[in-house]
Amino acid sequence: MNDLDLVRELRADVPSPTQARLAPGRARLLASISRPRPRFARRAILPIGAAAAAAAVVLAIASGAASGPATRSTAPKAPATRLTLTAQLLDTAAAAVASHPAVRPGPHQWFYTKFVQYEYGQPIQLSENWETFDGRQTAYFEGPDRPLIVHTGPVITGGGPTALDKYNANATSLTAYNALASLPSSPRALLAVVARQVAAVGAQNVAAGSPVSGSSPTSRGGLEFDYLATLLWNAAGAAAPPAAEAAVFRAMATISGISSQRGITDVAGQPAIALSASGGESQLLLDPQTYQVIGARQFSEGQNFWRRVAGRKADGLHMPPKGTLFISMAWAQVTMVSGPGRT
Amino acid sequence: MTGPPRERADDAAVIGQSWHEPEAFAELYDRHAAPIHRYVTRRLGDGAADDVVAETFLAAFRDRHRYDLSRSDARPWLYGIAANVIGKQRRTEVRMWRALARTGTDPAAEGHADRVDNRVAAAAVQRGLAAAMAGLATGDRDVLLLVAWADLSYDEVAAALEIPVGTVRSRLNRARKKVREAFGGHDPTSLCEELLNE
To answer: In this structure, which CATH number among 1.10.10.10, 3.90.76.10, 3.40.50.720, 3.40.50.970 belongs to the domain B110-198?
Structure first.
């Protein structure tokens, strides 16, 4: 027996946990899996497509949607709208959201969300979830005719000491609401705050946290857009402070490389306007009437993606052709409700 | 120290599947949660293990797209994530080792050790080891315990902690040296036997 063996025997009488002991952790994992929102730290990096052959993706939306989702197989080759028009659109959006009543929900207020998600090569998935504004409690049905699972997590605070901790903590509806509300109203000052945050958090971490972008932005404008889109996205499952949301739209109008696309239909069959800082490859989707964030989608970059992220390992990894709709997500419904399981 | 069976050629397949079928990830929990829970319990005590394990798998799920699918065994990756989560509570861990060193009573054993270990000698060895553990740098302790408790190979520890294999070796050497020094440079085995034979 040597020193390593002694270490091996240390606390060796700790038993293996029972299945019952592990069950709550499993339930938490399942709750997280069923929760659709790719919140912080989730760059939706592209699953390997089964085959690159499919040139057109035929989307069969779950029954109930009035009209079909976007079935286009190619992304716009260039920003569909000139910059000035995008600036006008964002100005309109800012005015529209600023006119919404400011209602700050209580921390324990429940929200019901119906979320539709499509990933390339997969059937469209519809999920329904309940969550409190502070994100502490989540609820979902494990399946049809199954009981409602309600999970209560730890109190979510402002995060740890580092800028990244704080950034990651802006992931619940409440913390995203507060982060938005703390932004200055002038576009220049707002983007200066974002620039400082991006520098403190690290560009890679911002990219990783963005639900909108499929890959790391390479430009300052792309990073600014990702940062702000993530805050809007994280707040979109409940409520955003109208004045701050308007300020974000006005700031977005000044981001270099911002573009928009009108007249599209999202994966839930809803009409939408798209905003992008990547030439349309990754888009944040707004409702054309209310200008609320209703979804996001990404188009394939083709094999370039793998070459960039995997380098020499790219051999054997297949992406669908450039421009193929790759990920599309939409909030079909977000409603303040009286409790979990209610709609 | 029964390491989980090694025929895990398909962890990568499960994770790859979870990229487009997220619920497939639950399989990874079913495979690995128990040994990781035990590992965490040994480091932080019974009270912290449930949350640390849950947090580990939630983080792993969120990070699943970054998993290197050429690695068939996900244990190094999961233990690496667990090490990060455990690292957030390193003060708690050190406090517990110190308490064990000082009093001979292991706070980490609360909840499972309802029998009183009457082998005082073993307790004395434990106290020496605990003092050594408390004195290790977190990174050194991670390496030592991943080798000794999680049965990871040097290569696997390197992958788990994202450090070069050479660093694994040097950290392990340093940690083991400190463990031996805790026994005054004696071969701790002989001390153990001496005490046991008293």
So the answer is: 1.10.10.10
Question: Which 8-state DSSP code applies to residue B22?
Answer: G
Residues ≥6 apart with Cβ < 8 Å to B113: A13, B106
According to DSSP, the residues that pair with A284 across neighbouring strands are: A275, A296
The yes-or-no verdict on residue A210 having pLDDT over 80 is no
Residue A164 has pLDDT above 60, yes or no: yes
Chain A residue closest in CA terms to B47: A21
Question: Would you state the structure tokens that stand for residue B1, as one six-digit string?
Answer: 């120290």
Cβ–Cβ pairs < 8 A, chains A and B: 123
Distance CA A131, CA A340 (A): 7
Nearest to B34 among A5, A22, A313 (CB): A22
Task: Report in angstroms the alpha-carbon separations of B3 from A257, B7, B34, B75, B191.
Answer: 53, 11, 11, 11, 28
Per-domain boundaries in chain B: 8-88, 110-198
Is residue A47 over pLDDT 70?
A: no
Structure tokens at B56: 């580990």
Fold of B8-88: Rna Polymerase Sigma Factor; Chain: A (1.10.1740)
Which of helix, strand or coil describes residue A112?
Answer: strand
pTM score, whole prediction: 0.54
Q: Does residue A31 lie within any of the structural domains?
A: yes
Question: Could A8 and B113 be called an inter-chain contact, meaning their C-beta atoms sit closer than 8 Å?
Answer: no
Structural domain includes residue A118: yes
Give chain A's domain count.
1
Q: Do A16 and B65 touch (CB under 8 A)?
A: no
Helices (H), A151-202: 163-169, 173-181, 187-201
* Rounded average pLDDT over A14-40: 76
Reported as a single tens digit per residue, the pLDDT across A283-329 is: 999 999 999 999 999 888 776 655 554 454 444 455 678 888 888 88
Give B178-187 pLDDT, tens digit per residue.
Answer: 887 776 555 5
Reference A89, options A283, A259, A206, A218; nearest CA is A259
Rounded to whole angstroms, the Cα distance separating B80 from A111 reads 35
> Searching chain A, which residue's CA lies closest to the CA of residue B88?
A160
- Expressed as residue numbers, the domain containing A285 is 3-337
Any domain includes A342: no
CA distance B73 to B157: 12
CA angle B79, B81, B85 (to 5 degrees): 110
